[in-house]
Structure formats: structure tokens, C-alpha cells
Batch of 4 targets.
Target 1
Amino acid sequence: IPVSVGLARTKTLAKLANRYAKKMHRHTGVYSLDTEEKVEAVLRWCEIGEVWGIGRQYATKLRSMGVATAYDFTLLPEEWVRKNMTVVGQRMFSELRGMPSIKFEEVAPPKKAICTSRSFGSLLTDKEEIKRALSSHAARCGEKLRKQGSCTGTIQVFLETNQFREGDRQYNKQLTIKLPMATNSTNLLIVYGCKAIDMLYKKGYNFHKTGMIALDIVPHAQVQGTLYPVENRERNAKVMKALDGVNTYMGRDTVRFAAQGYSAGWKLKMEHLSKCYTTRLDHVVRIKD
């Protein structure tokens, strides 16, 4: 797997250095923009559409103005960039000129929405099998929420057929459910997810995919309570902690909810899945004597 490293004073310049290393210095894979001459050379080399943050429409507009490279872009008046490319464009403009404007994040911020979904390994018509698939997605969703210390106040469940099978009847619906209280407990996510499938499911369709999206995510410590709680948060927190601990140590789904089942009919086919050479001892390549 090719690996390249770019070094510079700003994140945007570092991205350009990374690309330059990948294209022009394959033998080392590393390039440092440690002088003004190197910075200018890379800016002149980089086509405007390849700059991090410039999309297709901006690139087309800039080319029509004679801006062909990243260097040409740095020569534009700052007032024009601010007026025509908003604050985001101005930050990128400053970064290309060597002035850091995009903060470096040592820790990724919590996600504002979490989606867990997979296409079925084969088309499904049985509602119970679809529920088992959705329950597994809800379990993954709960794991991700707990990992970042968050809870979800709203879930969206969708169910759809394969739009590319023109001979099949088409169906694509989603249902949004506002939870009584924000939660990250897998059992509750499964309960409400299965209720959504009951409302979405229709006979006579070959279903191709289902999934769950967690919305209205809030920190676990800031969950607003209700007069009539629908869960014992203290008990569920202990159960989820034990569940995550066992599955982290013994492997995913070593302990699971009954609603997830053990059927593999809905799971995505992975006959050609690459082996985990760096994380599993039984996948390490053995060289015969």
C-alpha cells in the first residue's frame, strides 16, 4: 500500500506536499515544503481543481478567470475571495499563503449523526429476517454512541429495494421516531427499530437494504430526563458496559441480543475479503522452510 507524507506550515499546504510526494517522489514518499522556493514550485505544479477545498464548480469558475494553478489562486485579491468564496474559501486562501487558518484537531469531535447500514447478501422478503438485520445495525449504532459518550434522541429507519433491478417492484421508505428520552442502550434501539420495520414493511417486495441513523445526538451527561422514564439508565449502563467489555475482549457479537439472531442470510457476501494480516495471528503469512 503506497504511503506518502507531506510537511508544511499549514494543513492545506501539507495536503499539497503529500500529493506532490505521492506523484513526484515515489521513491521516498516524503516531501517537505521547508523553503519559500519549494512552496512556490508546488503551488505552480498543482492544478486548481486538485486543491483541497475547491470543488468542481469553483474550479470551473476560477479557470474561466484564468486561474489555472494554486499559485494563480494566491495572486487573487483577498477581498474577491472573501466575497465570492465565503469564509471557507478565505481560510483556504490564507492557508495557501502560509498563514494557518484551519485548526489542528488532536481528537476527532463527536459525530452529529451516526448511520449503520449494509446491503443484504441476498434479496429478502421475510419481515423477521429483516428485523434481525436491523437489530444488528442498531447494536452497531449503540456501540458507536457509547464509544463517543453520546446518546441519540431520534432515530431514522429506512427500508428499500434495489433500484437497479428494473424488473422488481420498487419501494424506498424511511420512518423517523422521536425517542421519549435520549439513549445509547442497544435494547431500546432494537425495540424502536423493530417497531419501525413493522410500520415500513410491505409484502410483495424484494428488499435489498435496511439501516438505522441516529440523530439529535447529545453528550451522555446532558440527557434531559422525563417524568416517566422508559428505561432504568443505571442498570442499562452497567449491562452495556459489561456487553462492550466482553465483545471487545472476545470478539464482536460474542454476546448479543436474541433479536439479532444467528442467521447469516442477510449478511453481505465477503468471499473475497482481505485477510487481517496485522491484527490476527491466524492470518499471518507463513513461509515454508
Note: The beta strands are 5-7, 30-32, 114-124, 150-161, 172-183, 207-219.
Target 2
Amino acid sequence: MRRFLISLAVVSSLGLAACGSSDSSSDTTAAGGAAKLAGGTGNDCTTDKTLTAATLTIGTGTPAYEPWVVGDAPEKGEGFEAAVAYAVATELGFDNEHVSWVRTSFDEAVQPGKKNFDFNLQQYSITEERKKTVSFSDAYYTTNQAIVGFADSSAAGAKSVADLKGLKFGAQTGTTSLDFITNVIKPDAEPFVYDDNAGAKAALEAKQIDAIVVDLPTAFYIAAAEIEGAVVIGQFPADANATPEQFGLVLDLENPLVACVNTALATLKDNGTLAKIESTWLSDKTGAPVISL
């Protein structure tokens, strides 16, 4: 709860500062100058653009994992993505009482078809392939890939991709982590593919595979809190991919709400809120040996 209060304090203090400055219009003005609606029900930009009038519906995983959502309870605002979601909602003029959460699987949210959310966040990397079926917001986080294994496994001590060729890897289906194994590591054996990260972690814990590949903050959480004896073997350089590994909010294809969300994210970047949320929830989950290509 302490971290949630810190996150709320960051947003609130910045908002109060804006209200008290001489060049601020009023406390009824949201990001980009859009006027907030009465009762915390949105702003001029979001009018007629949300699934349900006066409500912002946000999607997350089923379940949602730490450090992105603490305790699988996004409504508490604890965890990096839960805090980002509420910060975006605030910039869009929605108070907490007018935010509703829904659950989807990872793949479900990026499949073609009508969505049951206004935006969804489950560490979705922005890719050209996914842009064919959904719209993305601007990036809210940039990360890189990492390997989790046991300290006594064949993966331990790897210093380069060449050291990894003979390992048995696993990853969640439809993820950039799986793409990274296939296209960058290129192991001798085909990677094992699982419906979700839970399946990949279970296989690692049972030592059916040597290592899994996930984003770096997730790797640290798995090693610290989920699989006894697991360690972060290493992380890959940020430029290991041709394009940066950036997470974006997922919206329905050609959703007009994208422009509103991007304005909110720009404000959160400019006023330092995103950086402070990242520091609160992810600052201790980024240091690991670098595995060279």
C-alpha cells in the first residue's frame, strides 16, 4: 500500500502544482487542455469514445503478475502497470470510481474483433504484426529481454549467445520473447512454447527446460519471488532487436481514443510522473550481467 500511496501522491502533487500556478487555467483542465467533465467522468477528448459512457474500462491479464500488478488486484493501483493505468485515467479526467477493470488472456486482447476494454496493458510490445489487428498508444516503457534459469543449470555463466545454443528454451506463445529465442538466440533445438508464462515457469521449475526468456523486470520477479533457486542468468543488450522493445497500451483498431491516451501519456512523461512510477516499482529490477551477441 505504501507504494500505491507514493504513486497517488506523485500524481496528486503534480496536479496541485498545476492548479496553483499562474498560467494554469483551472483544476477542471486535463491533459492537452481538454476540459474535465463533472464528477470525474472523463474530459472533452474522451466524450463518446469510451465503451461505456462516463466510465474508462481497462483490461489486464488473467491473472496479472508482479511487478506489473501486485497481488493480481489492479483496482488497488499497486504495481507498475496498475499505477500507469490510473495515472492515464486521471489525465483523461476519470476518477477511480469511474474506472472499471476487465480480464483477458494475453492473445485474446490482440486478436481481431470487438474489444471489451478501452485499453489493455499486459506488457504488449509494439510490433508491426500486431498493428494489423489493434491500435497501440505511444510507448509507456522500454525494456529488454533476459534469461531465467537455475544457478546450477547449463545456462549458468553464459556470457554470449554462442554459450546458449545447446540449451532447451521455453517461452509464452505470441510474445516477443519467443521471437527473440527464435530469431536472435537461434538455439539448436526448437523452443518449447506455452500458453502463458505460468506454463513456462512450471516447466522450468520441473527442470523440463534449461531456461525461459522474459522481459527483464519479470525475470527479476520470477527469480526473487516465484521459483526457488532460480536466478537471472543475464540480460541482452537493448539494441539486440532491430527496434527498441517498447510497451504500448492496446486499443481497438483505429480507435479514436488513441489520440486522447497519447496526449495523457505525453503529459505524464513531460511532468515526470511516468519516471517516478517506474522508479517506485521497477528500480530494483533492471541490473543483471549482459550477454553479448
Note: Helices lie at 2-20, 80-91, 106-109, 176-185, 197-205, 216-226, 257-270, 273-282.
Target 3
Amino acid sequence: MRYAYFPGCSLSSSGYDYNLSLKYVAKALGIDLAEVKDWVCCGASSAHATSHLLSIALPVLNLSHAEKDGFDKLIAPCLACLSRFKAANVELEHDADLKKKIHEVFDYKYQGKVRVYHPLEVFLEMGIEKIRERIRKKLKGLKVACYYGCALTRPPKVCQFDNVEDPQSMDTIVKALGAETIDWSFKTECCGVSMTLTRSDMVLKLSNDILREAKEAGANAITVACPLCQANLDGRQRQIEEAYKTRYGIPILYFTQLMGLAFGAYPKELGIQKLITSPREVLGSVGLM
């Protein structure tokens, strides 16, 4: 299977460990990822606050590149990028005036043929048995809180994936890897990433709530499906601990890193050494490091 692949700004920089682990897992499952040529930032956060036309034009430009190269399926692992791409497709489908304006902006007239997927969608469409076939090392002993974030399933008319309030896609995969998933109520709560620079106090509060709930539910690790969520929960964890005078020490791993470990990859192949909150103690206790 071959997909157009949009790494976006995050997976090309701060989230390169997500990029590494996703490519490893995709290759193991026989998925060919072809990076979109001449891609540009999707405009998440800044573009739609500046201009609605710009917020649609940027994702359409990237979708056009994929469509021109013959792709009708595109993987966007960052939830911000995923949201902007899916929203652009929906708006063009239902707004003829907007579609006309977009066609006036670019020489190429995007036909809306490219369907956008998160990797979770792709892996589940392949079937859980395909994943089980690749397992070399069960993740027995890990108690994982699956954190989906607020944008993977919302708004439902745009995302059209999983249960909006109680998604199970990541849980299904993590369970298949042999880990225990924790039943908790904060799996779709916002971590505050859109306010990272403007209201860092609010980000600390929201992220602390997530870490606290995961810890109290018995998790020894949190797995995520977005580089922005990972940056908040991992990168700010020490700051949160200082602000709230507590200690969490919960590693924040991408679900693709867990899949890669189960598939037999070395931690370095998955970028696990990049994590700020070290997973060595947790992973070492179950023989994974």
C-alpha cells in the first residue's frame, strides 16, 4: 500500500521521533510512505486566525501536490495538520464560492480526490491481525493511558473517526501489543497546546490535570498520537511538577514507539532517547530497555 505522507513542521523538527517510529512501523506493515513534494506548513493555529481563505488555501496547496502526483490517500500524523486537511476537504465540498476562490488562487484546480487519514485509521483498516503478526515482544507489564487529545475525533462531522467522547482505536492497538490499557476519563481532554505561548499558565493547569488523572488511574506510561500533545505532556512535565509541587515521572511515548518496541525495534531506531521524561525505568522493568 502506498500513501502520500505529510510530515508537517513538527515531525520535521521537534517530533522527529514520531517520524522515525512511524516510518519504522509503516515499513514493517508493508506501507510505503511517499513524502509530499514541496510541502508547506498547513497553517494550523496562525492561518485561520489571520484569514479564512489562507487557512483553506495552505492545506489545499499540499493536497494538490499529492493529487497531482496521483495519490488519493494521504497520511497526516499531526492532529493539527490532520484537522486542517480534513476541514479543507469538507469546506470545499460544501461551499462552491470558497472552492471558486481557491481555484483562483492556484494554477492547479484541486479536485478533492485526496482522502486524509491519521496513521491509527490506516493501521486499523489493515486489521488487527496484521499487527499481531509483526509482534516479536509483548508489552506485558505496561499500564498505558491512551491519550487521544481533543482534535482526533472532533468535530465529528469533519473527523468521522472513532467514538467522539470515548475513542478506542489506540486502546485496541495497544492491547493487541500485550499492554494493559487504563480506563480513565481524560483521554480526549485538551492539553492547551493552542495557548502554549499566550497562556502558559493555562497549559500547565490543563496538562497537569491529564498527568494527575493518568497517574491516579494507575498508568505507568501515557501514549499519544500527536507531536503537539507529546510536547506539552513530556516537555513541560518538569515545569508542571515544580508548579504543582508533585512528582509524576510518567513517560509520554508515541503509540508508534510502542508498536515499534513490540515489533522488535531497538529503542534508538524509534527515537526513544529523545524523550525528556525518561522511559528507562518503566520500559526496563518489563524488559524493553
Note: The chain has two domains: 2-119, 136-285.
Target 4
Amino acid sequence: MGGEFRYAEYYTAHAGFTTDIENILCDRRSSYQRITVVESRAVGRMLLLDGAVMVTEWDEFIYHEMLVHPALFLLPQPRRVLVIGGGDGGTVREILRHPSLEHVDLVEIDAEVVAVAREFFPALSAALMDPRVCIYYRDGAQFVAQAPDASYDAIFVDSTDPVGIAGGLFDEAFYRHCCRIVTAEGVLALQSESPLHPVYRETLPRVHRLLRPLFAHVASYLAPIPTYPTGLWSFTLASKRWDPVDDFVPEDAWQRYRNLQGTLHYYDPGLHRAVFALPVFVQRLLASGSPSEGSSDQLL
């Protein structure tokens, strides 16, 4: 189609991400959402759900590495892992880089997301074919509510924004069940939206308020995701035992890092402690539970 189209996702009336579109490869509706795959010279193939960017070939490695590895490098021998969402396969790919992994359950509500990923993002979704992976096409909140106690060493919530079908993945009951079904040394990691977003920045302090009564340690960290709204994204890690900074052992982590399957492009153990040092405006957001005066509003 030769660049006849332009994609734009605005997070305010005046700002957003935009790129020329060379081809529309897929555009279909599932029972839950509209699923679109487009191709751009700037960022490669893009997976859109209801028009919002989920994955691009250009920067997906940052999101997936940063969701997974800060949590898994805290655990001495992670073996059983649960992923809620993540039907594109990128989170599972990063989990399976750890040689100790024995089993991964992926719970994706929309089977069409997995089908589209397999067709149009074969490298990204290849990990879903690993025999250690079991896929359940179910609601994630219902799955954790029915799962046995202490079933998993780690849980990753790779969800869309906290509205619609993903809304139940951001409430107290869901987090309470996650706490119940991880082991005594278990960890929970999730994407917690952008601290600069005019609406969803409130997600980060809300997540902290809900997780702190349940887990001994709750900490957030940031990473740049250029194709996501505002370009700055937060992740939150909750642990029953391990402090993500004080209990992190760089020497052990570097040894494990050298034994990973494949090559990472963003995360390494030298970065680990640094990402938990938050900018002042994020510290204030977490302390107050609401955006500080004159902070991100002036950037929008």
C-alpha cells in the first residue's frame, strides 16, 4: 500500500504516537476486541488491540525483558510460572530463557490473539510451542481464584490497560488470590501503566495500596517503551520474601545471566538495582497516591 495510511494513538488531545503504515496485514474482530496487525518502516510489524499498541517488532524486547527478568533473577531456582495475558508469546519467551524452568501456564482470554501472533509474529510467539507451556483460554481472574495454594514460583500479569476485559486484573481480590497461589518465596510482577499518563498514572499508586498489605516487599521500576503512551512505562514487583534491591546478589545473577538461553538486549544484572531508583515525581506519586502539582501535567 506504499505508506498510504498513518497510525496514531493519542493519550491526550495534543500528544500521542504516530507512524506511517505500509501494509495492513490483518484486521479482525474476536469475541472480545478488534485485533489488527500493521507494518511500518519505522517500527516493523505492530499488534494493535482495539487500536492500542501492544507489540512492535522494534521495541517489544524492552517491555518483555523488563517485565520478566527483575523478578526471576530474585528467585534461586524458578520452576513453575503463571502468565496472565501475554498471548503474543513475548513474556513466555523471556521466562523460558531461564534453564531451571519446568512449567509455564499461560492464561489468555482471547484465543484469537494467540492465533494472530502465531501467524504474523512467528519469532515472538515461537515459545508458545515449547512443551513446557500449557495455554488456557480463560479469564485470568477466574483462573487464579480457582488455582491451588502455592502453585507457582512467579506470576506475571501481562495485561492491557485496566479497563474492559482487563479490569479484573487490577483489583484487590485478584491480587489476594495471586498472593495465595505463589509459594512462600514467590514473586508477582505486573505492568502498572505510565506514571505520566493523564488517566492511567493513578494505576501505579493504586497497585501499591492493594499489594502492600499482601506482600512483604512491593517496589516499582521504570523502562522506556517508545511506542507506548508517553514513552515511559512502569512495572511493579511484589515479593513475599525477597527485597528486589537488598536481596539481589550481583555475582550470582551474573553467573545465571551467562547461562540464559539466547541473548538479552536491555536487561542485565548491572542494571537491576538502578531501575528501582525512581525519579522524584514518581516517588511523590506513590507517597501521595495522586499526581503532584506541576508534575506531569506540564508535559502534556
Note: The mean pLDDT is 93.
